[in-house]
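A.,

Following up on our hallway conversation. Structure tokens first:
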């Protein structure tokens, strides 16, 4: 689905504040509520809008440590990757996981309370996965930019 300029404006506004009422959203884009609601529903049905969430402040929740872990797997097969994916999906500390091209097979982003929790995670989880060969970790010193809104 290709978005027209009005849909882009609606989506940009919803990415910043998904709690906007249909009336408030319509007012901001200069249209009446019914057609505005239909545009939102079209984007939902097309899967462009996947859902609505509350963004939590990880610092206030005690998750002040952000760690990126690059993982190299022992073998490259569908079975190995499928098993690794299933195990990783079971851990809440892993907030993002990507399969990559190049020397690193997967990249994990973790949010944890502190470095001790990261050590526990590595020793009790990641390093016990038989498919994992080598890991390299980077601890974020500070967050410079973290946006949830996609560029439109």
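Then the amino acids I'd put at each of the 152 positions:
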């Amino acid at each position: 689905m290709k978005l027209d300029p009005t849909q882009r404006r609606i989506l940009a506004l919803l990415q910043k504040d998904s709690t906007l009422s249909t009336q408030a959203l319509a007012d901001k884009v200069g249209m009446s509520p019914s057609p505005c609601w239909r545009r939102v529903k079209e984007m939902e049905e097309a899967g462009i809008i996947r859902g609505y969430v509350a963004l939590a402040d990880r610092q206030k929740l005690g998750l002040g440590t952000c760690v990126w872990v690059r993982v190299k797997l022992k073998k490259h097969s569908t079975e190995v990757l499928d098993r690794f994916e299933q195990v990783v999906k079971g851990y809440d500390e892993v907030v993002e996981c990507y399969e990559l091209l190049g020397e690193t097979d997967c990249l994990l982003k973790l949010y944890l309370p502190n470095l001790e929790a990261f050590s526990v995670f590595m020793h009790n989880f990641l390093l016990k996965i038989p498919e994992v060969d080598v890991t390299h970790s980077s601890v974020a010193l500070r967050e410079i930019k973290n946006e949830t809104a996609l560029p439109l």
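Residues 5-45 form a domain with the Arc Repressor Mutant, subunit A fold (CATH 1.10.10.10). Curious whether your intuition agrees with the design.

B.
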